[in-house]
């Protein structure tokens, strides 16, 4: 048990309010897993909390949420609340309450309603420990109503099931099937955030199985043919997906390079040379080759960059017209990499003189 978190709860209690750790930390502590998923629920309002702590983020204070920094830990604290009239299947209208049980009943899954009080004791009002023991994910209250309210809960359910290796209960499965169309109204940032967590899980095969019926709604395809034993970008590179998913310029470039390399023979020396060991290693995993063998093949290449060719560009300019240099270097790369030309200056000079009508010095 993290004593700094208990100190935080006690500071709130000393100011005259209730406070509990809730969600991921109590759940994972009960599962004997290490976690830094710190969330606190309290009947103190954001304005009350600002008088107790140094608040580092209050942009969502109208929803009762602030982020505080204390004793070198960062914690999100949320006021007990009621959520009604969801907009766009995601954004609720919020009112505050003084009742912990009311707050817990607005939450998504029963396993996430487990709390810890200021003395370090579990507080379990809705049977969270029973669900955790049974390794099942059930919705708090009416599954259809909760999933219809917030479509992100579909992906959160699948992510929790994947990461924890839990089962979705039948009512939750039915609700997902009924309201999966609402996923199209979620932001692509939120969808991608959850998908990345699923794809990064060691239990990804299970996650893929749960996602297969949602391909149309998520605007992705190719999950059935996916080789999951690779990097996150390697997984995305195997999929077809809408351009609305938000990747950085660097990520887009890497995904495109992996896609290109998937169409090539990665054991070809010139291909290895062109794409390098990073991309070749990713594609090796996707194609089921030994990544270490491919990287070793790359290491053994006679050259890894044009600058390693024994004849410098300055020397080459003395032998051939300037406009031919690019063409000649590409030829030299291929000849050296194929083993048809040894990377020694004497042999390279002779090859140029014999094949490109070079000017003798």
**How much helical structure, as a percent, in the residues?**
40-55%
Number of beta strands: 13
Spatial order of the strands forming the largest sheet: 3-4-5-2-1-8-9
Beta-strand proportion: 5-15%
CATH topology type of the largest domain? Beta Polymerase, domain 2
Description:
- By secondary structure, the protein is α+β, with helices and mostly antiparallel strands.
- It folds into 4 domains: 134 residues, Beta Polymerase, domain 2 (2-Layer Sandwich), CATH 3.30.460.10; 83 residues, cca-adding enzyme, domain 2, CATH 1.10.3090; 80 residues, no CATH class; 50 residues.
- Helix content is 47%, strand content 14%.
- The longest helix has 19 residues.
Give the gist of this structure.
This protein is α+β, with helices and mostly antiparallel strands.
Give short descriptive properties of this protein:
seven-stranded mixed β-sheet; two-stranded antiparallel ribbon; cca-adding enzyme, domain 2; 47% helix; 361 residues; Beta Polymerase, domain 2; alpha+beta
Layout: helices, strands, pairs:
Layout: H1 3-14, E1 19-22, H2 24-30, E2 39-42, H3 46-50, E3 54-57, E4 65-70, E5 73-79, E6 81-87, E7 91-96, H4 100-105, E8 115-116, E9 122-123, H5 128-134, E10 136-137, H6 143-149, H7 152-164, E11 167-168, H8 170-179, H9 188-199, H10 204-211, H11 215-218, E12 220-221, H12 232-238, E13 240-241, H13 249-262, H14 269-287, H15 291-299, H16 313-317, H17 325-337, H18 345-355
Helix pairs in contact: 6-8, 7-9, 7-10, 12-13, 13-14, 14-15
């Amino acid at each position: 048990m993290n004593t700094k978190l208990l100190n935080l709860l006690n500071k709130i209690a000393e100011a005259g309010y209730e406070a509990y750790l809730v969600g991921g930390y109590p759940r994972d502590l009960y599962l004997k897993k290490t976690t830094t998923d710190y969330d606190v629920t309290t009947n103190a309002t954001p304005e009350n909390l600002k008088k107790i702590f140094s608040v580092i983020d209050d942009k969502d204070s109208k929803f009762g949420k602030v982020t505080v920094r204390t004793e070198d830990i960062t914690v999100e604290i949320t006021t007990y609340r009621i959520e009604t009239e969801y907009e766009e299947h995601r954004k609720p209208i919020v009112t505050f309450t003084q009742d912990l049980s009311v707050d817990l009943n607005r939450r998504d899954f029963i396993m996430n309603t487990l709390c810890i009080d200021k003395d370090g004791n579990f507080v379990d009002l809705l049977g969270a420990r029973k669900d955790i023991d049974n390794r099942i994910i059930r919705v708090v209250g009416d599954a259809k109503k909760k999933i219809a309210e917030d479509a992100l809960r579909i992906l959160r359910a699948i992510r929790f099931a994947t990461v924890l290796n839990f089962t979705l209960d039948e009512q939750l499965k039915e609700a997902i099937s009924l309201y999966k169309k609402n996923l199209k109204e979620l932001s692509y940032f939120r969808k991608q955030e959850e998908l990345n967590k699923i794809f990064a899980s060691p239990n990804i095969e299970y996650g893929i199985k749960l996602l297969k019926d949602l391909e149309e709604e998520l605007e992705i395809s190719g999950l059935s043919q996916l080789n999951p034993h690779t990097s996150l970008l390697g997984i995305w590179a195997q999929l077809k997906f809408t351009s609305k998913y938000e990747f950085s310029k660097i990520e887009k470039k890497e995904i495109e390079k992996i896609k290109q390399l998937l169409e090539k023979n990665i054991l070809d020396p010139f291909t290895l040379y062109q794409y390098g060991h990073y991309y070749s290693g990713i594609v090796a995993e996707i194609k089921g080759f030994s990544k270490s063998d491919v990287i070793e093949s790359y290491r053994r290449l006679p050259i890894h960059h044009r600058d390693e060719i024994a004849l410098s560009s300055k020397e080459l300019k003395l032998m051939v017209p300037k406009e031919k240099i690019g063409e000649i270097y590409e030829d030299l790369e291929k000849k050296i990499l194929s083993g048809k030309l040894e990377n020694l200056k004497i042999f390279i000079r002779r090859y140029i003189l014999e094949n490109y009508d070079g000017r003798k010095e």
